[in-house]
Amino acid sequence: MSTEGQRSRASSGEPLGIQSIEVGLKLLRPIIEAGRPLNLKALSDAAGYAPPKAHRYLVSLIRMKLVAQEPDSGRYGLGELAFELGLAAIGLLDREGMGRAAIRDIRAATQQTACMVAWANGGATVVSMEPGTGSIFLAVRTGSILSLLRSASGRIFLAYMPSDMTKAVLKQELAENPMKPASVTALIEQVQREGISRIRDSMMVGLSAVSAPVFDHEGRLAYALTSLGQSESFDTSIDSAVVQTVRQKAEELSGRLGFRARMAG
Fold first, then answer.
1. So where are the chain's domains?
2. What is the Cα–Cα distance from 59 to 70, expressed in whole angstroms?
3. Which positions ≥6 away from 89 have C-beta within 8 Å?
4. CB-based burial, 47-65: b 16+ in 10 Å, e otherwise
5. CATH 1.10.10.10 holds for 3-91
6. Which residues contact 233 (CB under 8 A, 6 or more apart)?
């Protein structure tokens, strides 16, 4: 850091750090965002460094096992210590707490009821709920197990969970309310294509909902974030504000849980 930069930070009350550490670690971000090893030119360009300068810092990062260089291509990827740090950070995350905070944000942004739904008790179960303004749904409360076919949340699990985990529940639902296999397949494909589930009056008359999946660092469905409200004032169109809010919050939370494939998609 330049003398001017140090004085600027000192005068603003910001603690002084070690410039070389900040400069070196800046090279990790392009690798993380690319999701693959990069050559020296790509790394130096992304960090805004001259190649010789970037190379010097990469040598140190390799020694610290934060970066590893591929022997054949010479490209630079994340090292052993970087992976260990990432896994440790994921292990320390309060996934449920983050989900509860997310539904509070959804409720604040939409004024509609929001809930977090996880696979528990043999079905898609409401594990946390934030009531919307003036909305009371007696059929949906914490602990409720939702239909795989008729609820927005249930369709997320039907579309993104391994079929061997949902097949028993699906079989029971189909026995009670028959549906052609092609219709079930079409429903799953629509959810996967749109990346969100939308219902209007299919769970109960007068109730509409949207739900989006949250994935963990291994690409597994962690839970669903859902917003629901009275059909007369709840817009489920794909470009509506509530749909975009739920989708954005779910994608943001997936990223915080270490899921990158969908973001890069």
1. 3-91, 93-264
2. 13
3. none
4. bebeeeebeebbeebeeee
5. yes
6. none
H or E element that contains 102: helix 95-110
| 190, 230 Cβ separation under 8 angstroms | no
Task: From first to last of the 265 residues of the chain, give the pLDDT tens digit.
Answer: 444 444 444 445 555 545 667 777 888 888 878 878 888 999 889 888 898 998 988 888 888 888 889 988 999 988 888 777 666 665 656 788 889 999 999 999 999 999 999 998 889 999 999 998 866 566 678 888 999 999 999 999 999 999 999 999 999 999 998 899 899 999 999 999 999 999 999 888 889 999 999 999 889 999 999 999 999 889 999 999 999 999 999 999 998 888 875 433 3
Of 130, 77, 61, nearest in space to 101 by CA: 130
What's the one-letter identity of residue 16? L
Other CB atoms within 10 A of residue 208 CB = 24
User: What CATH class does 93-264 carry?
Assistant: alpha beta
Side chain identity at residue 97, one-letter code = G
Q: Which residues contact 241 (CB under 8 A, 6 or more apart)?
A: 110, 235
Distances (CA, A) of 209 to 111, 113, 140, 187, 232: 13, 9, 12, 15, 12
**What end-to-end distance do the CA atoms of the chain give, in Å?**
37
Angle at which helices 181-194 and 152-160 cross, to 10°: 90
pLDDT reported for residue 6: 46
Residue 257 in tokens: 């849980």
Say which residue the tokens 């996934």 belong to: 95
pTM for the full predicted model: 0.68
